[in-house]
Design goal:
Blueprint: H1 25-39, H2 67-70, H3 75-79, H4 81-88, E1 95-99, H5 107-114, E2 119-124, H6 127-139, E3 145-149, E4 162-168, H7 177-187, E5 188-200, E6 213-214, H8 216-223, E7 229-234, E8 240-246
Parallel strand pairs: 1-2, 1-4, 2-3, 4-5, 5-6
Antiparallel strand pairs: 5-8, 7-8
Amino acid sequence: MFVPMSHDPAFFTANPVVNNPGVSHTGAMQKFLVPALMVFAAIACVGEDVHPITHRQIAQPMGPAGADWLVRPEREVEEHPDAALNALKIPKGAVVADVGAGVGYFTWRLAARVGPSGLVYGEDIQPEMLSQLSKNMKDRRLTNVRAVLGTIDDPKLPANALDLVILVDVYHEFSEPEKMLDRIRESLKPNGRLVLLEYRGEDPKVPIQPLHRMTLEQVKQEVQPEGFRFEQSIEILPEQHIIVFRR
């Protein structure tokens, strides 16, 4: 997960308050600088610094201190999560995985969509995030979610079992992207879908630090060599690509 963090005040415009002409950039920066510094307590892990194909610098993942930021009220306005899932037409009874789920912001939405006959794996590499994810599912009385502790090179998902794997603003943080994609591919059923949501690297107006954005071409260049077939890019969100691949 990303945070709008930069020395450039423009990167703090992820919250609509900064786009309001009546609010100064200074005030907006004061509001968001402390959370931004808190959430990027670096997670110690060994992996690649740059992707070997695109030479894209790999971003650091968000630490548990940023958990509250993941469920900020403004996120629905900024990201339109329900519109993103509507576009995917996920059927009842589907078996899906939310990889890099954090505290479960998309997981509980997926659980509601697949219904009691479906199953959602909420995966993360941080036990603290999974603890909060489990609490969030319990609070919502969702019984069709399984929390999974993965590693930097293996999400620990069952083989040939999933209809859909979704990565929401997380692929750019994989420190072992090729290995993760290989394991994800193994977890998908034949013709299963891999979906990435990533902030548009092509658009300089997207108020997110460049390290946490990707272009469509970058994603295709990195994902297709791992055995995935590009299907489509759905461009309905304000600032993010929805990029769909098939096994």
